[in-house]
C-alpha cells in the first residue's frame, strides 16, 4: 500500500466575477473548490493510474471536514489527524473582463504537541513493506528535522520512503537515508550548495548522497529527469507538448514513480512512467492533473538513456 503525507493541506476555492468593483456587491458567476496539497495530488494521480493510496496529514475545522469529504468523494482513502485549528484556505478571484487574478491565503494553522503525538501514532501503525510519500514543507512552527524523524521511524518499520521537499527539511531528511528523493533542479542546487544544470555535474554532486539514498530523481522541467542509483543512472526526456500549466507536474512525476515501484517495476520503468505522468499533467490548465489517456499517449514517446 502507498501512503501519502501532506502535513499542511489546504482547501482551494476559485471564484470568478465579471469585474471586481470595490465598495459594492460582486456577484460570483462561477466557483470551484478542491483539496490542495502535494501529497494529496500524488494520491489523485495514483488513483488515476488504477492504484490506491491512503492520504494522511492534519485537517481541522470546517475547511478540514470539507477537504476530507471531497477526497472521499473522489474515492481516496483518508486517515487525517484531526486538529482544533482551521485548515488553511487559498482563495483565487478571477476577473473575467480584466483578466486579472487576486490571491488570498489564510495562515497555516498551529498544531499542538498532542496533535503531533496522535499523528506520530498513526505513522507507527503503517504496515511493513509499505511505500510512504512525504511531500511539501513542514507546517510553520514545526521543526525542520521532523521529516528526518519520520523517515527514521518508517525505516525501522521496513517501509520505503519517498521524500519531496526543499531547503533545510530536504537536507536533514536526506541524511536520514530515505529510499528516494525527488528534488527539482533548483531544490537540488540548494541541497548541494552549488548552481549546476548539466547532467554530468548533477551526477557528480549527487555522488556523496548515493551511500545513504538508493534513488535520486532530479527533475529538469521540460528537459525531463535525471535518475541516479548505484545500479545505473538514466536521463529520461519527454516529447515536446503544448504546456498549459506546470502546476502539479512534479507531484504527478512522483506518483508515477512510486506507483511503478509499488507494482514491482524496475527503476528505469518507474522513471518512464513518472515522466509520462508529469508531462501529461502539463497538458491541463490550472490544477487539473494528468489523465490516463494522456499518460498512455505520451509514455510511448518518452526516451530513456543510460548514462
Outline of the structure:
The protein has helices spanning 38-48, 61-73, 113-124, 146-156, 167-175, 185-192, 199-206, 249-262, 267-281, 292-299; strands at 2-6, 10-17, 30-36, 53-60, 77-78, 81-83, 88-95, 100-105, 131-135, 160-164, 180-181, 215-219, 225-229, 234-237, 303-306. By secondary structure, it is an alpha/beta fold.
Structure explained in plain terms:
The model has no long low-confidence stretch (mean pLDDT 95). Helix 4 (146-156) runs parallel beside helix 5 (167-175), helix 8 (249-262) packs antiparallel against helix 9 (267-281) and helix 9 (267-281) packs across helix 10. The strands form 2 sheets. Strands 1, 4, 5, 6, 9, 10, 11, 12, 13, 14 and 15 form an 11-stranded mixed beta sheet that branches. A 4-stranded mixed beta sheet has the order 3-2-7-8. With 307 residues, it is α/β, with parallel strands linked by helices. The protein has one domain (2-9, 37-87, 110-306): UDP-N-acetylmuramoyl-L-alanine:D-glutamate ligase (3-Layer(aba) Sandwich), CATH 3.40.1190.20. The protein has helices at residues 38-48, 61-73, 113-124, 146-156, 167-175, 185-192, 199-206, 249-262, 267-281, 292-299; strands spanning 2-6, 10-17, 30-36, 53-60, 77-78, 81-83, 88-95, 100-105, 131-135, 160-164, 180-181, 215-219, 225-229, 234-237, 303-306.
Amino acid at each position: 500500500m502507498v501512503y501519502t503525507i501532506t502535513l499542511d493541506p489546504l482547501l482551494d476555492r476559485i471564484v470568478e466575477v465579471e469585474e471586481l468593483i470595490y465598495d459594492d456587491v460582486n456577484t460570483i458567476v462561477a466557483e470551484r473548490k478542491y483539496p490542495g496539497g502535494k501529497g494529496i495530488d500524488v494520491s489523485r494521480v495514483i488513483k488515476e493510474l488504477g492504484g490506491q493510496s491512503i492520504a494522511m496529514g492534519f485537517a481541522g475545522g470546517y475547511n478540514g471536514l470539507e477537504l476530507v469529504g471531497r477526497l472521499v468523494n473522489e474515492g481516496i482513502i483518508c486517515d487525517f489527524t484531526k486538529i482544533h485549528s482551521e485548515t488553511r484556505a487559498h482563495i483565487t478571484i478571477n476577473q473575467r473582463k480584466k483578466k486579472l487574478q487576486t490571491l488570498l491565503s489564510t495562515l497555516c494553522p498551529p498544531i499542538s504537541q498532542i496533535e503531533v503525538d496522535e499523528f506520530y501514532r498513526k505513522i507507527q501503525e503503517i504496515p511493513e513493506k509499505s511505500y510512504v510519500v512525504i511531500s511539501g514543507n513542514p507546517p510553520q512552527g514545526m521543526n525542520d528535522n521532523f521529516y528526518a524523524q519520520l523517515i527514521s521511524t518508517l525505516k525501522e518499520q521496513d517501509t520505503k520512503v519517498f521524500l519531496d521537499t526543499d531547503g533545510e527539511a530536504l537536507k536533514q531528511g536526506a541524511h536520514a537515508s530515505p529510499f528516494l528523493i525527488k528534488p527539482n533542479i533548483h531544490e537540488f542546487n540548494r541541497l548541494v550548495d552549488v548552481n549546476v544544470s548539466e547532467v554530468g555535474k548533477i551526477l557528480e554532486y549527487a555522488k556523496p548522497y548515493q551511500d545513504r539514498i538508493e534513488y535520486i530523481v532530479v527533475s529538469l522541467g521540460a528537459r525531463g529527469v535525471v535518475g541516479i542509483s548505484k545500479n545505473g543512472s538514466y536521463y529520461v526526456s519527454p516529447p515536446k507538448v503544448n504546456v498549459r500549466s506546470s502546476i502539479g507536474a512534479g507531484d504527478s512525476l512522483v506518483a508515477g514513480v512510486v506507483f511503478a515501484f509499488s507494482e514491482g517495476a524496475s527503476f528505469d520503468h518507474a522513471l518512464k512512467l513518472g515522466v509520462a505522468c508529469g508531462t501529461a499533467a502539463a497538458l491541463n490548465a490550472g490544477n487539473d492533473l494528468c489523465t490516463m489517456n494522456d499518460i498512455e499517449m505520451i509514455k510511448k514517446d518518452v526516451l530513456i538513456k543510460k548514462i
